């Protein structure tokens, strides 16, 4: 994990030997499970270190200490960005929400093997879970990467944030998406607070973090039923 070690350092993240060993195990299990179920198209050792692990850790540019915070990763897939963050911040309380059963099986197995505490893996859709009182407006932070366009994502992610919390969307060249998401943000109780450029030679140009603050409660009718946020964005 020398590349990850080096590149994380340039983002201001100093990874310990124990954390690097966990990332090594993550890589090995990801590649092994990927032969049986489709977890990622990125399988090269170096590319996984940058395009999955380092990219996930870039969230730290928006919030430098996630310990003791409650975070939900919506559409976590094989764990990105939530699990790399959990490896670095062992005291954060993480929920990994993912609609595909094979992927949640992988996530549960990996969390056990890495002995990560305070991680909840949920196999369901955001449209359902966001109406559950145990999850609605309960999180300091919701995060999401590569799941949907920003207007749709606001409907899937903002309902999980407490008022005063943030939704961080990992995007690339987001100008157009931001314009289209104006209406969704205002209906759902969000306001764009920051656009943080992620500058690293190891990551694609134009990567950025959109920090959307939850300024007021989301009306109870949102998210709408399964599939509608994507088919008919606000
Ligand atoms: N976030 C991961 C990453 O960046 O590698 C996975 C990205 S993958 C392209 C999108 C994932 O979002 C898929 O695993 C899919 O099952 C999940 N997903 C899509 N819509 C969802 C929803 N409404 N609720 C929960 N998961 C969803």
UniProtKB/TrEMBL annotation:
GO BP terms, alphabetized: methylation
Protein transport in keyword set: no
One annotated GO molecular function: methyltransferase activity
Keyword S-adenosyl-L-methionine carried by entry: yes
Major site of localization recorded for this protein: cytoplasm
EC number: 2.1.1.-
Binding site for S-adenosyl-L-methionine: 75, 80, 98-100, 126-127, 145
UniProt keyword list: Cytoplasm, Methyltransferase, rRNA processing, S-adenosyl-L-methionine, Transferase
Enzyme kind, highest EC tier: transferase
Pfam families (alphabetical): GidB
InterPro entries: rRNA_ssu_MeTfrase_G, SAM-dependent_MTases_sf
Subcellular location: Cytoplasm
Family: Belongs to the methyltransferase superfamily. RNA methyltransferase RsmG family.
Role: Specifically methylates the N7 position of a guanine in 16S rRNA.
Name of the protein: Ribosomal RNA small subunit methyltransferase G
Source organism: Candidatus Dehalogenimonas loeffleri
């Amino acid at each position: 994990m020398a590349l990850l070690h080096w590149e994380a350092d340039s983002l201001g993240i100093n990874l310990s030997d124990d954390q690097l060993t966990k990332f090594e195990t993550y890589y090995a299990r990801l590649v092994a499970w990927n032969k049986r179920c489709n977890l990622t198209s990125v399988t090269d050792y170096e590319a996984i270190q940058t395009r999955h692990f380092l990219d996930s850790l870039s969230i730290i540019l928006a919030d430098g200490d996630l310990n003791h915070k409650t975070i939900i990763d919506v559409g976590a897939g094989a764990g990105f960005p939530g699990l790399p963050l959990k490896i670095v911040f062992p005291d954060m309380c993480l929920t990994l929400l993912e609609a595909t059963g094979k992927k949640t099986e992988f996530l549960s197995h990996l969390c056990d093997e890495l002995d990560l505490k305070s991680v909840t893996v949920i196999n369901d859709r955001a449209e359902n879970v966001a109406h559950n009182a145990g999850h609605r407006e309960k999180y300091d932070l919701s995060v999401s990467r590569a799941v949907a366009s920003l207007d749709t994502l606001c409907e899937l992610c903002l309902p999980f944030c407490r008022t005063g919390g943030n939704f961080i969307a990992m995007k690339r060249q987001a100008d157009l998406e931001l314009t289209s998401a104006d209406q969704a943000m205002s209906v759902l109780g969000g306001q764009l607070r920051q656009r943080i450029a992620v500058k690293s030679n190891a990551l694609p140009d134009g990567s950025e973090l959109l920090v959307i603050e939850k300024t007021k409660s989301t009306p109870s009718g949102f998210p709408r039923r399964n599939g509608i946020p994507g088919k008919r964005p606000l």
